[in-house]
């Protein structure tokens, strides 16, 4: 893969390609934006391009340097992140980075150090990193990545060229899910909407039991009040409860869209169009918006660590059934 093959993020890629044309090292970048939208992918391709033997504004994917980088074995590419069992990036990791920066490149023209989740630097680690950013070596490039600009210390952000990444649009997300990960049509359409263009989240959902849970929720909705007691099976733990609320939101959102006569391609649940159209006739606009409000409050309840049985009962009682 290469920068030119990245889908979306046209503005960030133009900035990075211009930097590659100038070949000016001793700089630091801060990639910031929502998690799972492709910051890490772009960082890897940019890092490959910096030491690509073709020396253009992109990586060639065929030279020895590019192939070794793809395997994660290139000696001048160093990746730092939260290590297993920890919640933070610690000063010991920054000190290892400092040691790398003090050495000459082993094989390439430039050392590349990437710190993912830099918002998780401990205070001690952040202060140590600040010293590196103040006096970067002339044969190095540093890439920091964060899920938000405000989560990074202003003193660190001010010493970096800031590059903002945004959520992919639905078509871009679908294209990646189809072309690179071969997700089937119905699932990729739903995931592109549900994940709000966050490919990382979409892939995680496609590889677990998410669609099994989705089908279980929809089955209970369609079977009516005799299944109310089973809602506790859906709201078993906090992550599953959050997914259940999102799935319910997608269902009632689609019903609202049908009532508003929106084009069918705007529905999230493309594979449930017939059932959604049937259900749309059973609810008044007031009932629909009341249900969406209850579901939205459910997310706040989860943040407040409300009892999950109480949450399940609240959702069950709020559902308006028609025979």
Strand order of the largest sheet: 2-3-4-1-5
Major sheet: 5 strands, parallel
CATH topology name of the largest domain: Rossmann fold
What's the overall average pLDDT, rounded? 90
Distance between the termini: 54 Å
Helix content: 40-55%
H/I helix tally: 15
> How many beta-strand segments?
5
Q: Which overall shape is indicated by the principal axes computed on the Cα atoms?
A: elongated
Just give the CATH class of the largest domain: Alpha Beta
How does this structure look, described?
The chain has 323 residues and is α/β, with parallel strands linked by helices. It folds into two domains: 164 residues, Rossmann fold (3-Layer(aba) Sandwich), CATH 3.40.50; 111 residues. Helix 5 links the parallel strand 3 and strand 4. The longest helix is centred in the last third of the chain and has 22 residues.
């Amino acid at each position: 893969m290469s920068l030119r093959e990245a889908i979306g993020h046209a503005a960030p890629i133009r900035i990075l390609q211009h930097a590659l044309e100038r070949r000016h090292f001793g700089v630091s970048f801060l990639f910031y934006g929502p998690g799972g939208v492709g910051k890490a992918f772009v960082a890897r391709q940019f890092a490959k391009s910096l030491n690509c033997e073709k020396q253009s504004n992109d990586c060639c994917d065929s030279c020895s340097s590019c192939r070794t980088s793809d395997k994660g074995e290139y000696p001048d590419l160093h990746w730092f992140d939260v290590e297993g069992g920890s919640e933070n990036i610690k000063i010991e990791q920054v000190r290892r980075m400092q040691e790398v920066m003090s050495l000459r490149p082993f094989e390439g023209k430039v050392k590349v150090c990437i710190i993912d989740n830099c918002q998780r630097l401990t205070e001690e680690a952040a202060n140590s990193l600040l010293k590196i950013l103040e006096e970067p070596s002339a044969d190095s490039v540093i890439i920091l990545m964060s899920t938000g600009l405000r989560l990074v210390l202003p003193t660190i952000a001010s010493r970096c060229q800031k590059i903002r990444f945004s959520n992919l649009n639905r078509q871009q997300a679908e294209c990646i899910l189809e072309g690179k990960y071969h997700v089937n049509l119905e699932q990729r359409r739903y995931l592109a909407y549900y994940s709000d263009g966050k490919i990382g989240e979409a892939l995680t959902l496609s590889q677990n039991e998410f669609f099994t849970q989705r089908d279980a929720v929809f089955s209970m909705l369609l079977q009516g009040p005799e299944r109310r007691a089973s809602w506790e099976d859906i709201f078993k733990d906090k992550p599953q409860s959050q997914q259940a609320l999102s799935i319910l939101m997608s269902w009632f959102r689609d019903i609202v869209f049908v009532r508003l006569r929106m084009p069918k391609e705007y529905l999230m649940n493309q594979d449930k169009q017939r059932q959604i159209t049937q259900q749309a006739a059973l609810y008044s606009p007031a009932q629909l918006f009341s249900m969406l409000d209850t579901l939205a409050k459910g997310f706040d309840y989860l943040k407040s660590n409300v009892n999950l049985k109480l949450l399940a009962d609240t959702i069950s009682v709020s559902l308006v059934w028609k025979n």
